[in-house]
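Margin note from the TA: students keep mixing up input and output lines. Inputs are the sequences; the output is the structure of the whole complex. Example:
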Amino acid sequence: DAGVTQSPTHLIKTRGQQVTLRCSPKSGHDTVSWYQQALGQGPQFIFQYYEEEERQRGNFPDRFSGHQFPNYSSELNVNALLLGDSALYLCASSPASDYGYTFGSGTRLTVV
Amino acid sequence: GNSVTQMEGPVTLSEEAFLTINCTYTATGYPSLFWYVQYPGEGLQLLLKATKADDKGSNKGFEATYRKETTSFHLEKGSVQVSDSAVYFCALFRGNQFYFGTGTSLTVIP
């Protein structure tokens, strides 16, 4: 049974560019959350998607946006990249009925 | 608000030593509490959890007890192994999101 799959695993972008990260949830999970983990820090909640809608949002600017597709997969988009956006971006999926979250291995984004 | 404070590292122990990583929390209501582990270059793996006061979570020799009176969820293991070297995160779950501590790096030397 595949867990949460994230792609790509690593990427490098230039300041000011835009990036899209992708997440496929664990089978049977319909809720997807995104977290940002800066180096040496704990993960910070970005937002959560359920039924293709943003259900909840953390303290992140509008440059961070997302989408959830009918098959429950999700994308995280970041516009106008800043050096400070360099981080590990984690996707977590869960069934809507409880908080049995499964985390993916993350996408390491480096902004230069 | 909701927040987690955990013991700063890094922590270095010899194999078979006793481990304690302190974690305290501030939360509205009664959150669920978790310990996650992160190995180098990887995502988060659930280590253990507790959903209500006085619950004890346990897994792979690690234990933590949900103490409402002291708002704590300290992680313990009686005898660490080299393979336990990783970063450990304490977290609370409230309002559909996790609030993580800053992590404690553990290195176990043979």
